[in-house]
Amino acid sequence: MSDTVKGPFRADHVGSFLRPERLKKDRLQRNRGEITAEELWEMENEEIKRLVDKQKEAGLKAVTDGEFRRAWFHLDFMKEVEGMEFVTLDKGLIFSGGTETKAEGAKVTGKLSFGDHPVVKEYKFLHSIKGDHEARITIPSPSMFIFRTVTDEEKKFYSSESELFADLVKVYKDAISALYDSGCRHLQFDDTTWSLFLEAEKDKDLVLSGGLLQARGLDPQETLELFVDTVNEAIADKPNDMTITMHVCRGNYKSTYASSGSYDAVSEIMFKKLNVDALFLEFDDERSGGFEPLSHVEREDFYVVLGLITSKFPELEDPDLIQNRIEEAGEYLRKEQLCLSPQCGFASTEEGNLLTEEEQWAKVRHVISIANDVWK
């Protein structure tokens, strides 16, 4: 199969995998104080080793730790940034079908800094077992910090969103430097905030489309520019041999979603101004619109990973249909700049999507089989 020199690869994945039942029980034991943090770390190591072996056996070229050490794809990273704390909320976020998440979040309690963040230790372990494969670590995009709980206490430290995001730039620069020094050559940002800007009238009551910006008193266009500038500044000094990609997510909780809408509303700024090396984009159903926005890509060294295979349900897509959709996308962006993956991870939170591990791996193998046929 014709492939990219380095990730993303023709057959790729977003990063999170279903948590083994044993690991869920171990985490509950830790929460009850029945085992130590060190004991949980070793148990997580065992399960991550098994997961990495399964990724290799399936034929994936990039391996992740499956986010096995996290309950949330974003909060676990955010709460370990100095100046952030975990917080219990009055209610969770509302996803499609009225599904409500756990009522948990994070708040600012001081000036932000990267500090001695555990993600570095987590990556070092993954690096130690990657073998000849690419080891990819996933962290939330800087923009995800907009989902924090805003308190009066925060105003003691930050008078505006732009001031807070300026410190976030330093946090992410330090993160990139520390991960690179640990051997990381592929870092992935996960970001649901772009969905704030997608036109989705029919889903206006869902969490991402229901006035979150207005509740913060933020202007949509100014905030979009702030997000782009923050990411670009954060990665501006990355080494040339380090790839930084971004997954643009529409929400993923127990096989439900949080927003709809095509990429039309953000396509020009996304493809012309955002300086990441590739975007993982959801295109698995009608919620995502068409491929026309891909025509705004101007860089020949930029890749788009088409999330055409759903991670939310076990049914396998018609291979011919997926190949046809890739060909359709190729009308707007060279096929050499396209890759294939599931539309999201299989477990953006520890609850996971509604399919079995066996069905999960069938999805992964399906991606690889189709990609092998398309990029021969």
UniProtKB/TrEMBL annotation:
One GO term (biological process): methylation
Any Pfam family: Meth_synt_2
Superkingdom, taxonomy of origin: Bacteria
Domain Cobalamin-independent methionine synthase MetE C-terminal/archaeal: 13-350
Enzyme class: transferase
Gene3D superfamilies documented for this protein: 3.20.20.210
InterPro entries (UniProt xref): Met_Synth_C/arc, UROD/MetE-like_sf
The protein's name in its UniProt record: 5-methyltetrahydropteroyltriglutamate--homocysteine S-methyltransferase
Organism: Thalassorhabdus alkalitolerans
